[in-house]
User: What shape does this take?
Amino acid sequence: MNQLSMFGENIALLIGILTCLGFAGIIGLVLYTSLRAAHTARRSSKSLAAYDKSRRDARGRLLPPLGAGICEQCGDTRKPVHFLLDGSRLCRQCLDARPGKS
Ligand SMILES: [Zn+2]
Assistant: This one.
């Protein structure tokens, strides 16, 4: 085997190895990107569901606007209160415990 044919074989082998590495890199990049996108979509849908749940009561209706104030039933000033349409201000616990919710 002369030097020239060995050189040709080595070049062909090198091109083959580089092509395989390139394809493996592309496949790895696509896999990484798609897994990352799926993870991000799952996380954002979970946080959106948690935000939506925090804005609704047990029966799925929207809660009244939230703000700082004093609860009219328990008198607690630390928790944020909901401003109801009839003018009363109730914290989340007292709003959930209230029998006939408006
Ligand atoms: Zn209260």
Notes: DSSP finds two helices and three strands in the chain.
